[in-house]
Amino acid sequence: MDRWDMSRMPAFSDPSQQNPSEQSPLRLGVMASGNGSNFEALAQAIEAGTLRAELRLLVVNNPGCGAQQRAERLGVPCKVLDHRVLRNREDLDQALVDSFRAADVEVVVMAGWMRIVTPVLIEGFAGRLVNIHPSLLPSFKGLDGIGQALKAGVKVTGCTVHVVTEELDAGPILAQAAVDVDRDDDHDSLARKIHREEHQLLPAAINAMIPTWRDQASL
Description:
By secondary structure, this protein is an alpha/beta fold. Helices cover 39% and strands 21% of the residues.
């Protein structure tokens, strides 16, 4: 059975009570390294009207990856910043900051970004850099949260949307969804269940945060 911890999500606002800047779509940038299913989930939520946002730019670090192919199919601007070409992590993160600022992005979402980020990016979008992690943080931080959960033999795991800080997978939690680990689950089957929850949780958590981000911007 899948469960959402809605207590960790800000209450949705009545659109009629919002000022024009709050009602305008949130300008999103997305970072992805692989298949890009969470990126497409954001696009689908926007199309369905459940996420008040627009996708300004996708950045990938692996040329030709699934996320880039999805962006081309969906008509979302996409930029390749190959980490193999840039000198170091700081150079990559500065290029990310420059790219998102040039696209007038308000909030950046790490949707399967398989690189450790540096303070250059974290401070460039302080409080507005969001990650989706495949575990119920603070459990199973870091690489392969799904494999860690299986090895630990837990009966429940899930996914977490959180703000990115300098401490790995330790930033403020915005929302979580729990998933039961069945006796016959392997890495692939558990990953499929978690991904289904991620695709719902990530757009909902971002949408719920829009009034907060807009209030912060007006201070």
